[in-house]
Write a structure and sequence with these properties.
There is one protein chain. By secondary structure, this protein is mainly α. It folds into 2 domains: 8-91, Rna Polymerase Sigma Factor, Chain: A (Orthogonal Bundle); 112-176, Winged helix-like DNA-binding domain superfamily/Winged helix DNA-binding domain (Arc Repressor Mutant, subunit A). It has 9 helices and no strands. It has helices at residues 8-17, 21-43, 46-63, 73-91, 112-115, 119-128, 131-142, 147-154, 158-176. Helix 2 (21-43) crosses helix 3 and helix 3 packs across helix 4.
Length: 178
């Protein structure tokens, strides 16, 4: 009979579920930075990002016992965080405007422009995007959702998702080219 090896990550998660404060602090220290960065990308404002992050952490601690250790813990945490950000945006009745009913293809963009900017500057520009553009850009370009998935999650048309992404890229390119 094979003995299951318990990883440090699994020990920490099990200790968190058992209510051990030191494990919960270690868990928070290990993952809070990456999760808050996700919230900040979606929120655009520190106050909203802090609210999103707090709600995401509450959900994570509530659901931590459900994690099955079958995939990446960090990936699972990020998915909960992204979903919380999207739920918060939906509840705030964020409007995803500028639907284009007949968008068939996006015009190829000059990706060389994006190579000239560092991550910090790009993050600052992302915070300035209108909420619809920013949300779709985050989901498509950073989180890897397809336009069909974005449309379903945000309850918009696939063409709206494509147009939001197109406009976000154009706006970012105009800002970077300055």
């Amino acid at each position: 009979m094979a003995i299951e090896q318990i990883t440090e990550e699994k020990k920490m998660v099990l200790a968190c579920v058992a209510g051990e404060k030191l494990a919960q602090q270690e868990f928070y220290q290990r993952y809070s930075g990456v999760l808050f960065a996700i919230c900040k990308r979606y929120a655009g404002q520190d106050i909203l990002a802090e609210d999103m992050f707090q709600e995401a952490m509450i959900k994570i601690y509530q659901k931590l016992g459900d994690f099955r250790f079958e995939g990446s813990l960090e990936g699972w945490l990020k998915r909960i965080c992204v979903n919380q950000c999207l739920d918060t945006l939906k509840k705030s009745k964020a409007k995803f405007q500028d639907s284009l009913d007949n968008v068939h293809e996006l015009i190829a963009s000059n990706d060389d422009v994006f190579a000239e900017i560092n991550v910090k500057n790009l993050m600052q520009l992302l915070m300035k995007l209108p909420v619809g553009y920013r949300t779709v850009f985050n989901m498509f370009a950073i989180e890897g959702y397809s336009h069909a998935e974005i449309a379903e999650v945000l309850n918009i048309s696939e063409n709206t998702s494509k147009s939001q992404m197109f406009k976000a890229r154009k706006w970012l390119q105009s800002q970077i080219s300055r």
